[in-house]
Design brief:
It is built from 27 helices and 30 strands. It is of the alpha+beta class. A four-stranded parallel β-sheet has the order 2-1-22-23, with helices on one face. Strands 4-3-7-15 form a four-stranded antiparallel β-sheet. A four-stranded mixed β-sheet has the order 11-12-10-13. The longest helix is centred in the last third of the chain and has 21 residues. The structure holds ligand ANZ.
Length: 830
């Protein structure tokens, strides 16, 4: 059979697309606008199978929208700051830009060759000074609004990368990048106040739930971690004369989700590394405390919160008063309480909380149960389930007998009346630590002056450009390499003119990627970060396709940025991504591809062996886009055979372009119409694999009419064959653009198929001829009628009762009721 030359076809159309530039988004277009966004890559090398998959899936949607008549913004750029380039630069004694921009060039070419419909006139790199100028500008706007601030706090510290990590970058206590164990350090760091938006970030998920993947919604809800409870204040027992009234705490406030268990609070625990612990500890206990603190600093948050870990702690020598019963309870320091969560101190209820139970057992502290466990409960653990309150009464209030929810309400009311507490909401979400002690990022545009303190760099002095450092200059030494760049870091204070220093930290790369989708709307604008009118015309993004690994990091930050920018009046919407799709992972032989397993699949090799279209088709056809793809089970050669088969159709059509399909083979026309119509829902519902299957069926049906002649015997001359072949070509262009262009040309059309229109569907072909209706009498099927699908209930009833078999079954009995469900069922009750 005839075949096409894959390489020649690719070369030819790559050039045609370059000349025609069919995917340039026109801001001024009168057509309805759609914004198709896919996560931009880190330029850490050439494209790999993972990129190929996401781009192939994404392109289905973008190309579909063009064909449906929308003006489509489908941009691509590079998230080009970050540790990858910096580490490579240290290794190769180079500048990170060398590595970065070489990879960008290679990836861009590969991306074009992959036949993606990106608008390259809008590309951006976050490491370009004309991009990070605006990242800095945005930082300053956040700073002005009090949404960027500095504080000293224990931070996650990677001893190998010598940098601070955000909580999100610590995976099971290990550095996301190098895999080494993360420790804690006290540092003054920059934060974004994302917690101000915690409630809205949570609330909007109820709406996003309809169009975002469940796993992302769940991950965000958990990350935000809203809980309801109370703040409860415990007065401190004075230490006596030993330490007269210094400026010290006189009470401790805790956050608890279980104020109903207050009567069972038998001790308190303060985070060992919280300032409060240092403040509280008595001189006697100080040495023991200091020793303990040393130990604590080595543990990660995950380890600290683990219920598995043996409990450790130290008595601080102080006591507090339980406001419900006046009892004096000891205050301990331990590591299972975190310094930066809630208030950094807890009321310990060993009867109801397992970690408190373990702690009480370890240090021989009293345990009082305040919820009655079921009779079969084995009495060697905390009871965390439901049950009536017990042991919970004082002279004024009794919770005994109440369920947890009621008891909570009652005790909160009582605490509020005594001014000992207040109902409260707490979030697990913390502020976003954004400073990094690394070189390859956007410098933070702040100058520190001994006289004037923090002084923002003036807008007209932006960008604060990175100094030229390379190789060994970049080796982390605990301070940012920028701090060591004397010429750069030492400046005059913009206010007083005295000696001052630039802030030597750079911004987390998640800052860069929190607004890039806005910049795409006016990427060359050197007067502003983005054009508000254009952002509002294109945005919010109608679809965002990318990896689920960004479920909580990037997606939450980008949402936060959008809300802040909306508050500033710079963006007209509060949520940036209307719909979302996460692709699965491409694996091989059942396992994640890795160097050590030697199971990596090289994209380049696949492309040269089977061609771009066959690889794309294989990725899209593999299964639902969310599922992982095991490349070992795929058949790119089978995909190529199918493409050849589809291509052959275009050579067998002998009617001329523009021929009316009227009068053609009706069965084929129906299949074509149904395939086109269903394709719309399948693309909208991200069921791209089903779409491919339907195109395959259409190819087979068309082939059959060509080979057998069809109803009219006209075969390739039948106008229904042209109609079908053109539909195949257009649908196939979503997945296999090269062969589709070739087919479109062979069918006598001008390029490019990508910018033709979606096939029109003759609605009458979608109407099914007849439906089978079942008629039951006394619950037994007595007849089957062929009826038109839109028959009315009345007509159907009349038809059924006139049917001879039905009349016979009724046999003169009185008809009590006829239940009609047109067009499929009639039930006669006699
Ligand atoms: C008493 C109590 C009794 C608690 C009980 C739980 C069960 P979420 O839901 O995550 O907000 N907690 C508060 N601050 C903490 C900190 N800094 N480090 C570690 N744990 C802390 O959890 C709130 C609960 O976690 C609080 O309610 C507190 O323990 C603990 F039967 O208070 B609870």
């Amino acid at each position: 059979a005839a075949t096409y030359d894959v390489t020649a076809v690719e070369e030819k159309w790559l050039q045609v697309w370059k000349d025609l530039d069919p995917f340039r988004a026109d801001d001024a277009s009168a057509r309805e606008k759609r914004y198709a966004l896919t996560m931009f890559p880190y330029p850490s090398g050439d494209l790999h199978m993972g990129h190929a998959e996401v781009f192939a899936l994404h392109d289905v949607v973008a190309r579909y929208w063009w064909l449906k008549g929308y003006e489509v913004l489908n941009p691509m750029g590079f998230d080009s700051f970050g540790l990858n380039a910096e580490n490579a630069a240290i290794r190769d004694n180079e500048h990170p830009a060398t590595f970065t921009y070489a990879n960008i060039a290679v990836s861009t070419e590969s991306c074009k060759k992959f036949g993606t419909s990106f608008d390259w006139s809008r590309t951006l790199n976050t490491s370009d000074p004309d991009y990070y100028k605006w990242t800095q500008w945005l930082f300053l706007r956040f700073y002005e609004r009090g949404l960027a601030y500095r504080k000293e706090s224990p931070v996650n510290w990677c001893p190998v990368d010598q940098t601070v990590l955000a909580n999100e970058q610590v995976i099971d206590g290990h550095c996301e990048r190098c895999g080494n164990e993360v420790t804690k350090r006290e540092l003054t760091q920059w934060y974004f106040k994302i917690t101000d938006y915690a409630q809205e970030l949570l609330d909007n998920l109820d709406e996003l739930e309809k169009t975002w993947p469940d796993r992302v919604i769940t991950a965000q809800r958990n990350w935000i971690g809203r809980s309801e409870g109370a703040h409860v204040t415990f007065p401190l027992v004075e230490e006596g004369a030993q330490r007269p009234s210094r400026n010290r705490a006189s009470e401790i406030t805790v956050y608890t989700t279980r104020p109903d268990t207050l009567f069972g609070t038998t001790f308190m625990v303060v985070a060992a590394d919280a300032h409060l612990a240092r403040e509280l500890v008595t001189d006697d206990q100080r040495p023991a405390y200091e020793d303990y603190l040393e130990e604590v600093r080595k543990a990660s948050d995950i380890e600290r919160l683990s219920t598995e870990r043996p409990k450790t702690g130290v008595f601080l020598g102080r006591y507090a008063v339980n406001p419900v019963n006046g009892q004096q309870i000891p205050i301990w320091a331990a590591d299972y309480v975190l310094a930066d969560y809630g208030t950094g101190a807890i009321m310990a209820v060993p009867g109801q909380d397992q970690r408190d139970w373990d702690f009480a057992k370890r240090f021989d502290l009293p345990i009082i149960r305040t919820v009655r466990p079921p009779d079969d409960f084995v009495d060697d653990a905390a009871y965390v389930g439901q049950g009536p309150a017990i042991n919970s009464a004082n002279d004024e209030i009794s919770l005994n007998g109440l369920g947890i929810a009621e008891a909570k309400r009652a005790i909160i009311d009582w605490l509020e009346s005594k001014q000992s507490g207040k109902g409260a909401v707490n979030f697990r979400l913390r502020d976003w630590l954004l400073s990094r002690q690394r070189y390859w990022g956007a410098p933070i545009p702040i100058i520190h002056c001994p006289v004037d303190g923090e002084v923002p760099v003036a807008d007209d002095q932006l960008p604060v450009v990175l100094p030229e450092l390379r190789g060994a200059d970049l080796t982390p030494r605990g301070v940012s390499p920028l701090a060591a760049a004397e010429d750069w870091v030492n400046v005059e204070c913009p206010k007083c003119g005295g000696p001052a220093k630039r802030d030597s930290d750079t911004m987390d790369t998640f800052v860069d990627s929190s607004w890039y989708f806005l910049r795409y709307c006016s990427p060359q604008d050197d007067t502003q970060a983005f054009d508000t009118d254009l952002v509002n015309a294109w945005g919010p993004c109608d679809v965002y396709i990318g990896g689920v690994e960004h479920a909580v990091l990037h997606l939450l930050y980008a949402r936060f940025f959008t809300m802040v920018l909306n508050d500033m009046g710079l963006v007209g919407f509060r949520e940036p991504f209307s719909a979302q799709l996460n692709q699965g992972t491409v694996i091989n032989q059942g396992a994640k591809m890795s160097k050590s397993k030697g199971n990596g699949v090289r994209l380049g090799e696949q492309l040269s062996a089977f061609g771009v279209d066959a690889v794309r088709l294989t990725l899209v056809f593999a299964g639902p886009p969310e599922d992982d793809i095991d490349w070992a089970e795929m058949s790119p050669s089978g995909s190529l055979r199918f493409l050849q088969r589809a291509w052959r159709l275009s050579g067998d059509v002998t009617s001329s372009p523009g021929t009316s399909p009227e009068g053609g083979d009706v069965a084929l026309r129906r299949i074509t119409a149904r395939t086109v119509r269903d394709a719309e829902g399948l693309v909208d519902g991200f069921k791209f694999n089903v779409l491919v299957a339907r195109v395959m069926e259409l190819v087979n049906a068309t082939r059959k009419v060509i080979d057998t002649g069809g109803d009219s015997g006209a075969g390739g001359a039948d106008p229904a064959v042209r109609e079908a072949a053109e539909a195949v070509t257009i649908l196939l262009s979503l997945v296999a653009p090269y062969v589709a262009e070739e087919m479109w040309e062979r069918l006598g059309h001008q390029p490019t198929v990508a910018r033709t229109s979606w096939p029109t569907v003759d609605e009458s072909l979608l109407v099914e001829d007849s439906v089978t209706c079942v008629v039951q009498v006394r619950g037994k099927v007595r007849a089957r009628l062929e009826v038109v699908p839109d028959i009315s209930d009345a007509d159907l009833e009349a038809l059924a009762l006139a049917e001879p078999d039905v009349v016979r079954a009724i046999d003169g009995a009185e008809v009590r009721k006829v239940i009609v469900r047109a067009p499929k069922l009639v039930n006669v009750v006699v």
